[in-house]
Amino acid sequence: MSIGFEELDFVATPMGPLSLRRRALPATGEDVFEVKLGDDFLMSSQFTAGEIALAELGLGAADAPALDVVVGGLGLGYTARAALDHPRLRALLVIDALPAVIDWHRRGLVPLGTGLATDPRCRLVLGDFFALAAAGRGLDPAQPGRKVHAVLLDVDHSPSQVLHPSHAAFYGAAGLRGLAAQLHPGGVFALWSNDPPEEEFASALDYVFASTAAHVVEFETPSRKGRGTNTVYVARKAG
Q1: What does DSSP say about strands 89-96 and 122-126: parallel, antiparallel, or unpaired?
Q2: At what angle do helices 173-180 and 199-208 cross, to 10 degrees?
Q3: How many Å apart are CA 160 and CA 195, to the nearest integer?
Q4: What CA–CA distance (Å, rounded) separates 44 from 152?
Q5: Residue spans of beta strands (DSSP E) within 139-194
């Protein structure tokens, strides 16, 4: 029988206390894994439709026959897993700023962890995605200047609700231009957001990229009294 509630890890980070916990749903006994940063819920394995759609919509918009992809933000691994399941995925680099999150996967503390950590196409890299994007030397610390076909980002709650003030500049036109420079022609940038589409961010995307779209992704909520939504922005660089 599943344990009702268990804290699997707790660690102090520069952004606040980070915890991984597992709880059992009362009705079914199914395990749900949750990540919290301070009082904020970052992710739950109960709600993964948006994270999966981030990979499916983002990579679906890329037209290269073999895709080299960067995921910013590892979390519980659902975006990375969906990227690895894409038929044209060639290589995946997953960047996360928190050592504990990478450690959870390598130790098998989260359901998708072992599969991601042992897949030869996938590298888990400790780093600050936003600092790498701003530096202009590429997102792969092992291969400076390397360009990729798609970047999938899921770190902040939304472009206007960031986890750290240093992230905010990325979501303006200058930050997005820096990111676009690290994509191949025709490359794709896709972003997960917990909020409805934001006009200011959509305008910044339109200014930098050749084509853009904001997809609203619906999912069931536990109360069954309504449906939740996430937004997935997809922007494509001129070919």
Answers
A1: parallel
A2: 40
A3: 9
A4: 19
A5: 148-153, 183-193
**pTM exceeds 0.70 for this model:** yes
Phi, psi of 35 (to 5 degrees): -120, 130
Domain ranges of the chain: 47-236
Percent helix, strand and coil across the chain, each rounded to 5?
Answer: 25, 35, 35
Q: Among candidates 123, 59, 114, 48, which has minimal Cα distance to 87? A: 59
Query: Considering the domain 47-236 in this protein, what is its CATH number?
Result: 3.40.50.150
Q: How far apart are CA 167 and CA 224, in angstroms?
A: 34
Question: Which residue is associated with the tokens 């472009």?
Answer: 159
- In 3D space, the residue among 211, 89, 93, 99 whose CA is nearest the CA of residue 146 turns out to be 93
Find the helix or strand (DSSP H, E) in which 166 lies.
none
pLDDT in tens, 176-220: 999 999 999 999 999 999 999 999 999 999 999 999 999 999 988
**DSSP class of 138:** -
Query: Could you tell me the two tokens for 163?
Result: 């986890």
pLDDT in tens, 30-84: 899 999 988 888 899 999 999 999 999 999 999 999 999 999 999 999 999 999 9
Q: Which residue's entry shows tokens 């395990």?
A: 31
Residue 12, both tokens: 């102090």
Helix residue ranges per DSSP H, the chain: 49-60, 78-84, 99-106, 113-118, 129-135, 173-180, 199-208
Phi, psi dihedral angles at 51 (to 5 degrees): -65, -40
Return the DSSP state at 158: B
